[in-house]
Design goal:
By secondary structure, this protein is of the alpha/beta class. 34% of the residues lie in helices and 23% in strands. It has a five-stranded parallel sheet with strand order 2-1-3-6-7, with helices on both faces. The chain has a two-stranded antiparallel ribbon with strand order 4-5.
Length: 120
């Protein structure tokens, strides 16, 4: 079922990108990753879900989320913001995120959040 679902993951930590993409691919998702969050705004092929780190060098996941939610092409695509600071949950919601996950997170929690936003 997940074969046709594309997920874009943006985080400036290569270790997180590797781990998350490996697990998501094992779950059957098609994954694209980027260390530079700004590249999500110029993707030719849109994903079914965005997973964005809030604090990335060169970009802020909340700003990216707002841009995605204000763009007619991407406003319907769920955004899950992740951060090492649980204090940012409210600002993630304010930015228009569909969900928030604090690092470090359990992979099962991430998979559940992805399943939730894909069924809503």
């Amino acid at each position: 079922m997940n074969k046709q679902k594309r997920i874009t993951v943006a985080d400036d930590d290569p270790g997180i990108l590797d781990a998350v993409s490996m697990v998501l691919e094992m779950e059957g998702y098609e994954v694209s990753t980027t260390l530079n969050g700004n590249t999500v705004l110029t993707q030719a092929e849109l994903p079914h879900v965005y997973i964005l780190d809030i604090w990335m060098s060169g970009s802020d996941g909340r700003e990216l989320c707002q841009k995605l939610k204000n763009d007619e092409r991407t406003m319907h695509i769920p955004v899950i913001l992740i951060s090492a600071s649980n204090d940012l949950k409210r600002s993630a919601e304010t930015a228009g995120a569909d969900d928030f996950l604090a690092k470090p997170f359990e992979i099962d929690a991430l998979l559940q959040k992805i399943a939730n936003v894909l069924t809503n």
